[in-house]
Write a structure and sequence with these properties.
Layout lengths: L1 E6 L2 E6 L5 E6 L10 H13 L6 E6 L24 H4 L4 H16 L7 E6 L2 E3 L1 H8 L2 E5 L3 E3 L14 H8 L1 H10 L3 E2 H7 L4 E3 L4 H14 L2 H14 L4 H20 L4
Parallel strand pairs: 3-4, 4-5, 5-7, 6-8, 7-10
Antiparallel strand pairs: 1-2, 2-3, 8-9
Helix pairs in contact: 1-3, 5-6, 9-10
Bound molecules: ligand LXW7GFR2.
The site of ligand LXW7GFR2 has 21 residues, from β6.
């Protein structure tokens, strides 16, 4: 196990045969893994540090909660060190505010990269930015104590850390609106039923279940998984005919690769 990063409540290790698995751990359990700009910078750095050998990125958390979301110190008048308070953000010129939020969002985007499959192991509370971080991953394996909630709207804000699209894709518009507008908890049984969770297991079995799924993902040929992920991701935005064409093109690349025939 090699440690790649350990700062601001984010620890990244490499493991697996040939460093194929990166494990990103939220490691500020005393504060329920509440997130700040420093957390997001560290998560962005984690994505940049991953070597090309990595095929599966696991996101997990220490302590009682996966993440209690935004550090609520940010909404106090005094704020927290190293992060503009809401009071300050509200006074930014529009372009500067756009840049600031875009930078925060970088922590949430790289999990979608086609060269990795990202897998969130979610237990306890996943609230606001915590819920959005779980949504940033391709797959979610949840413990039976999981409690998702999108609290931004209840605080007078909107979810702006890339979570709205995957939420709508996973559960549909009407349920996504209801979950966001009410800020209510979505517990394990519902999460599995509506498609938020790929799998729900007893809390004590979460790590083993993540290990089993990781092994199953690694068992498939790498390039086929990369092409399949790209195909499925693109299916949301392509027309039916465009998607058929994308399938043909991808299959051509796979066949030529398998047969050792050059492009
Ligand atoms: C239900 C929660 C998560 C856990 O309850 P608990 O009883 O297990 O733990 P407790 O409340 O005693 O908390 C333990 C310590 O952790 C500190 N804590 C917890 N959450 C936060 C937080 N979000 N920010 C800062 N600190 C937090 C808590 O103060 C305790 O510290 P001490 O031991 O007293 O020193 C419960 O904690 C809870 O409901 N937390 C708040 C959840 C929440 O509302 N989060 C905000 C969601 S909105 C969001 O994330 C928005 C993001 C988008 N955007 C970027 C636009 C702002």
């Amino acid at each position: 196990m090699t440690e790649l990063l350990n700062k601001d409540g984010v620890r990244v290790t490499l493991g697996g045969d040939g460093d194929t698995v990166a494990t990103v751990t939220l490691d500020n359990p005393a504060k329920r893994n509440a997130q700040t700009a420093a957390t997001w910078r560290a998560l962005t750095e984690a994505g940049r540090l991953l070597p090309g050998s990595v095929r599966v990125a696991v996101l997990r958390a220490e302590g009682k909660s996966f993440s209690a979301g935004l550090d609520l110190g940010v909404i106090t008048p005094e704020g927290i060190p190293g992060m503009p308070s809401f009071h300050e953000l509200a006074r930014y010129p529009e372009a500067q505010l756009d840049d600031a939020i875009a930078e925060y969002q970088e922590a949430f985007t790289w999990w979608r990269r086609n060269d990795i499959v990202s897998l969130a192991a979610v237990h306890g509370h996943a609230i606001g930015a915590g819920f959005q971080l779980a949504l940033a991953c391709d797959l979610r394996v949840c413990a039976d104590d999981v409690q998702f909630a999108m609290r931004e709207t209840s605080l007078g804000l909107v979810p702006d850390l890339t979570g709205t699209r995957p939420l709508v894709e996973l559960v549909g518009y009407a349920r996504a609106l209801e979950i966001c507008a009410t800020g209510r908890f979505v517990r394990a049984e519902e999460a599995e039923r509506v498609g938020l969770a790929n799998l729900v297991v007893p809390r004590a079995e979460l790590d083993a279940a993540v290990g089993d799924l990781t092994a199953a993902l690694l068992a498939a040929p790498r390039d086929a998984v990369v092409e399949t992920k790209a195909l499925l991701r693109g299916a949301v935005t392509r027309s039916y005919d465009e998607q058929r064409a994308a399938e043909r093109a991808a299959q051509g690349r796979r066949l030529r690769d398998l047969a050792g025939v050059g492009e």
